[in-house]
Amino acid sequence: MSKGSNEPFFRRAYGRLVGQLATRAGTHHLAAIEDAVQVSMMRAVERWPRDGEPQNPEAWLYRVAHRELQGSLRRSARRQALLTEHAPPPEPDGGALLPLLSACCAEGQPERTRLVLALKLVCGFDVREIAQRLFMGEGAVRKRLERGRRALRAQGELGSFDAPSIRLMVYAIFAEGHLSHEAAVRAELCDEAIHLARTLVRTDGAPTSEALLALVLLHTARLPARRSETGALVLLEDQDRALYERAKIAEGLEALERSARGNAYTRYHAEAAVAAAHALSPSFEATPWQDVVNAYAHLERVSPSPLHRLNRALALAELGGAEAGLELLRDPPPSWLEGSYLWSLVLADLNRRAGHRQKAAYHRAQAVALAPEGPIRDAVRSRLSAV
Amino acid sequence: MPRYLCLQRSIPGGDDSQPSPSDMQAMYAKFNEWRAAHEAQLVDLGGRLGEGRLETSGPIDGPFVEVKELAGGYMIVEAESLEQAAAVARGCPGLVRPGSGVEVIEIRTP
Fold this sequence. Notes:
The structure holds two protein chains of two kinds.
Chain A: H1 9-25, H2 30-51, H3 57-72, H4 78-83, H5 94-104, H6 111-121, H7 127-134, H8 138-155, H9 163-178, H10 183-204, H11 207-220, H12 246-259, H13 267-280, H14 289-302, H15 306-320, H16 322-328, H17 335-338, H18 341-354, H19 357-370, H20 375-383
Helix pairs in contact in A: 1-2, 1-5, 2-3, 6-8, 7-8, 9-10, 9-11, 10-11, 11-12, 11-13, 12-13, 13-14, 14-15, 15-16, 15-18, 16-18, 18-19
Chain B: E1 3-10, H1 21-37, E2 42-48, H2 67-70, E3 71-78, H3 82-91, E4 100-107
Antiparallel strand pairs in B: 1-3, 1-4, 2-3
């Protein structure tokens, strides 16, 4: 690890070390493995400042954790297997990290439990940190971890990895970050999603994985412009596009280009196309709305959701006027979305722009009442102040 | 310049929760900073103390506490005064916190 770098080396190493040891010792010994990795890092903090940082810090951690695990598995048959092996050098991170992530995503557990498990074992967050990031109580996190670990132990061995379920998990981590009210959490979880998507692309190189990487990079590139100095949310049309992160956009576009191989067009492709349209447009007015409308129409086909219809209506309104957008929303939304501020927000906005003042006022009141308190409600209020 | 022996003492009432990988990375960075700031005064960064025992000339009354329960680690610091030495020790990350304190003792050499 290079001193002064921003890379969360210990956290990243945590997932790789747990993965490698679980590959060798099996998932039955998950608790002992996690303890061994914890001990290796505590030793590092004690020893490295005195003796200097080792040439290969991760190999050092691995050796210590490996020895520690051998000690704690004294009575297990697995010990023999671990003993006969001289601690091998750490593998490139795709080696064991993806099978571990895949095991965390295995069927049979609720999505939230899988997410908690992945954040703990793969991303190296502890219970307190997960609770803060997912806005859950520590007790609830602990319960989910317990159930998830039990299911993981029952799996026994880490197998190969399953790219589709890994992509879903990366997307879930990204969505959790992207939607977070807290800027620091948002940046950190989005970076985590980028890191995992890069790892996946390096290992499987599949066009769909490339599309996922493009999507998370291109959206994350716009994060610095999403929040004003006072902490308020800044809407797309008011964002200072000079704040977009150029390096992430460039890397995202490269991934997007590589994703256009083969004949699969997935929701990740469609969402990456939307993200690219926004990230590349020099201004809100110059947005290629037709591309955005097309991408959302695609998205509705490959992954039907009223949220996609809502987004398409907004893009359509920019392209062909507010009535065109409203036309698309004439069918009532499903009940789960009816209670959401998003639906009301869009209806208030489009009705105002179409000159339907009474309808606009009605939906405005709904949107403000339904929006979560804090920056989101403030943004809704300011967005609709003209209604 | 006088030297001081710094002994880490466990104090009841600490929480036994373990630091997260992020915490450990932060501790490592802080420790490096602290060491760089006091390089000249840190004579011996010492180490952890293991088991020990007291050898005596005969039986002694009174309850004895095993060494390992008393002290977690030691180091030797050079400073102008006890106050200065204590300030250096206090600044060492992780030493003074709930559950842990440091005892600073002057080493008098003839």
